[in-house]
């Protein structure tokens, strides 16, 4: 029997003084702002992740917004981690792999032949701002069906040509009806500023989870972290 | 006890909240900042922030937010089950006159304090206000945390950006309450002992 499970004979004296000292020691040693995914902060992230997963409903949709709510062109922030704007490499095609029956390369035309989904919804950034645009593309769930993704693939990994920026998603969020591989924004083909030729877009996660400049989508049995997630940002990041 | 748990938790939540605000010190959606907010683009002062950077502050905020909400919930439960709500909450018909007289006394417009029990009308008003602030803080915080999964709550608060403004206004109001609260305790040192021990037992 593991030692920890053996009840202690010594009565546990929890005085107010020891509780306060313990709490103070806990917060200073286990709450490291530089590493918020470790120690007590990290343990609470995992608790919150379970709560967020329980709160998530597959059929709950973000409200679609009227054109008047759209953020004025130019005010929708651009973002990439490379020093200059990543431009689509010659002969680009999306590599789809992992636990799938038909791994391979999908061209933009291949993706555009699959059912098209379009919506105008609010974007929520981890920094606290919101913005509104319309996006069109193909659902990740439709791509998964097209390539025959295995049900054991509980996670979806997205990789990019933006200096290796990547992220990984839980299957329910990735397969949500409003999670798409977007090739267009505001009725136009996706511009390099917003992730051309293909990016992930979704109603159910914060912006940093929506990988732009996509090169690879992999259906995997385990999560594989992410660019910001490795630097201390929360992995689940649902909204 | 619940009261003192609030002190470190509120400090953590306020400090980490301000560090989160520093990542985008504007109110209103992109391209349409709120005109009424006087501090657009001004980050909160560094001494008031906890968490060093956005991810650190979010770590603190979401690790401890649940405990503050839980503590508030336990207190609400205590109020309801013990019957203390009758003595502590502000009822306009019963307490307005006393609150006004007490205020007049503090402002030196009145020489004698009005008759009072354990809590006067002004105290009841302040404590009930703090309770409502706490409830608003939790609700607006949840709306910001899950604006899609708790979409109905976000809509109730006027949408995501409105909930963000409410969340910050609640903090500003809490600061005002705390200043008033501490000044009052300093003016009435004897009450401090009662805050520590839990206070006098009800007479009845």
TrEMBL record, chain A:
Under the heading InterPro entries, the entry gives: OxRdtase_Mopterin-bd_dom, OxRdtase_Mopterin-bd_sf
Among Pfam families, the record links this protein to:
Oxidored_molyb
Checking SUPFAM superfamilies in the record gives: Oxidoreductase molybdopterin-binding domain
Entries under PROSITE patterns matching the protein: PROKAR_LIPOPROTEIN
Q: Which residues form the Oxidoreductase molybdopterin-binding domain?
A: 88-228
Question: Would you say which domain of life the source belongs to?
Answer: Bacteria
This chain's protein is named Molybdopterin-dependent oxidoreductase
Which organism encodes this protein? Answer: Myxococcus llanfairpwllgwyngyllgogerychwyrndrobwllllantysiliogogogochensis
């Amino acid at each position: 029997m593991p030692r920890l499970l053996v009840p202690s004979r010594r009565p546990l004296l929890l005085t107010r003084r020891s509780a306060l000292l313990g709490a103070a020691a806990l917060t200073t040693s286990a709450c490291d702002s530089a590493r918020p995914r470790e120690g007590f902060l990290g343990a609470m992230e995992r608790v919150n992740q379970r709560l967020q997963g329980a709160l998530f409903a597959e059929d709950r949709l973000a409200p679609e917004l009227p054109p008047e709510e759209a953020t004025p062109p130019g005010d929708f922030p651009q973002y990439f981690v490379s020093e200059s704007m990543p431009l689509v490499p010659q002969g680009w095609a999306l590599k789809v792999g992992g636990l799938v029956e038909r791994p391979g390369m999908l061209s933009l035309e291949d993706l555009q032949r699959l059912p098209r989904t379009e919506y105008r919804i609010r974007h929520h950034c981890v920094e606290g701002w919101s913005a509104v645009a319309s996006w069109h593309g193909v659902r990740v769930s439709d791509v998964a069906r097209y390539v025959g993704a295995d049900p054991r693939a509980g996670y979806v990994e997205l990789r990019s040509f933006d200096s290796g920026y990547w992220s990984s998603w839980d299957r329910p969020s990735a397969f949500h009806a409003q999670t798409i591989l977007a090739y267009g924004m505001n009725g136009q083909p996706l511009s390099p500023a917003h992730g051309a030729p293909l990016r992930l877009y979704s109603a159910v996660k914060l912006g940093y989870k929506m990988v732009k400049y996509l090169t690879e989508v992999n259906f995997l049995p385990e999560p594989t972290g992410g660019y910001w997630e490795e630097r201390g940002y929360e992995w689940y990041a649902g909204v | 006890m619940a009261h003192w748990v609030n002190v470190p938790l509120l400090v953590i939540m306020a400090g980490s909240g301000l560090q989160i605000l520093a990542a985008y010190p504007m109110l209103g959606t992109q391209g349409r900042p709120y005109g009424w907010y006087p501090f657009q683009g001004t980050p909160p002062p560094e001494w008031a922030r906890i968490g060093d950077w956005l991810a650190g502050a979010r770590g603190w905020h979401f690790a401890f937010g649940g405990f503050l909400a839980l503590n508030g919930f336990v207190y609400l439960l205590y109020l309801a089950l013990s019957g203390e709500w009758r003595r502590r909450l502000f009822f306009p018909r019963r307490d307005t006159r006393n609150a006004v007289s007490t205020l007049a006394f503090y402002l030196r417009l009145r020489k004698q304090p009005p008759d009072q029990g354990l809590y006067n009308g002004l105290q009841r008003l302040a404590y009930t206000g703090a309770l409502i602030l706490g409830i608003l803080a939790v609700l607006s915080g949840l709306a910001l945390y899950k604006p899609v999964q708790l979409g109905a709550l976000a809509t109730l608060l006027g949408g995501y950006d409105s909930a963000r403004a409410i969340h910050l206004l609640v903090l500003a109001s809490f600061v005002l309450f705390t200043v008033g609260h501490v000044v009052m305790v300093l003016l009435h040192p004897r009450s401090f002992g009662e805050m520590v021990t839990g206070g006098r037992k009800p007479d009845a």
